[in-house]
Amino acid sequence: MLQTSRIHAPVAGPPARTAHVEPRIQRITERVGLWWTRIVLVAALLTIAIWSFADQATGLKAGLAVLFAGSPCALYFATPIAMRIAKRKARDAGVDHEDLFTLDTVFVDKTALTIGHPEVVNVITRGITENELLRIAAAAEHDSENHIAHAIRNAARARELSLPRATAFVETVHRGITARVHEREIAIGNFPLMDSLGVDVGLLQGAAEAMRHTGKIVVYVAIDREIAGIIAVSDAIKGSMPGALGDLGKAGVHVALVSADSFRTAQAVADEVGIIEVHAEVTPDEKREIFERARRENRIAVVADQTIDVRALAHGARIVTEAMRDIRENIWLAIVPAAIGVPLAALTIIGPIAGAAIAIAACVAVVANGLRLRRVLHVRT
């Protein structure tokens, strides 16, 4: 699910590239354009006043030349052209471009980073064989739809284990499940579940922590409230993730990992892909609160899980990076000719026609640079 907040009221995180509706770069360009217009008007009036002492016609001609040469039209073209081209490119590439230029934070669920095929990679038992532990666990998890249950059932299927019937199935969100198999009480889940049932996991806790340090999800299995073993599940990180997250970072987008897994598991995954901010052992309500806190802090934020490809966000970030470079170039292409033309016009070195030619040339240069951006985006994205 992709949740996006378009901030009219307060969104969360470090980079302050916040937005009301338009991107910060557009507001800056408009502010610069406003001040530049004032400067040109003042320069034109001073030129007219000074030259009028000698000849009124010369003063009016010089003032008109200053206005033409210092026209801010090209400056006001600088941002919209690049943004329009970037958004069209994003749309053509299938990237949601609604908040392309205002996005500053991505809260990534761990499921958005992995390939989506969790597997049982380790089984440690106490007083029971691995096959028997998997057989009982798979039977107990028969009615569960979470990814850990799928991995356990797949492991039992791969070993061709026959599964007994389970009854009294109860699933507790972010804790685990309980069921009855062969009239024995089975519990599979994390430490809080075991603790609530009075199960002592001390003998296997060290092994569980060691596995979590490597990014594995570890669940305890208890039979009749006695610890019987642990099952470690791992879902490989997509090979493209470090690069994709790096592209987001280069575009100034802050990335945070939000996971229901233990802190050590979440931290290991974050270290692997280069994420610094980690929120672990987070419930659905807490995840919503993190996002809402982001909104209150006036940031445009996105929450991505397994239904959103982070690579699409990274692709959009690459488009934004190229567009921002183009906007900066456009600002220079608009300002430099005007900055040269205004004093030349004020000194009557050039007239109104030459001043108008400078303004037109600046507009053409900005538009041409925008068209060049379209070719650059076609090649690089």
Give a verbal description of the structure.
By secondary structure, the chain is α/β, with parallel strands linked by helices. The chain has 3 domains: 169 residues, no CATH class; 69 residues, Rossmann fold; 116 residues, 3-Layer(aba) Sandwich (Calcium-transporting ATPase, cytoplasmic domain N), CATH 3.40.1110.10. It is built from 12 helices and 11 strands. A 6-stranded antiparallel sheet has the order 3-8-7-6-5-4. A hairpin with a 2-residue loop joins strand 7 and strand 8. Helix 8 packs parallel to helix 11. It is rod-shaped. The N terminus is likely disordered.
Topology diagram in text:
Layout: E1 3-4, H1 24-52, H2 56-69, H3 73-92, E2 105-109, E3 119-125, H4 130-140, H5 147-158, E4 166-172, E5 176-181, E6 184-189, H6 191-196, H7 202-212, E7 217-223, E8 226-234, H8 241-250, E9 254-258, H9 263-273, E10 277-279, H10 284-296, E11 301-304, H11 310-346, H12 352-380
Parallel strand pairs: 2-9, 2-11, 9-10
Antiparallel strand pairs: 1-11, 3-8, 4-5, 5-6, 6-7, 7-8
Helix pairs in contact: 1-2, 1-3, 1-11, 2-11, 2-12, 3-11, 3-12, 4-5, 8-11, 11-12
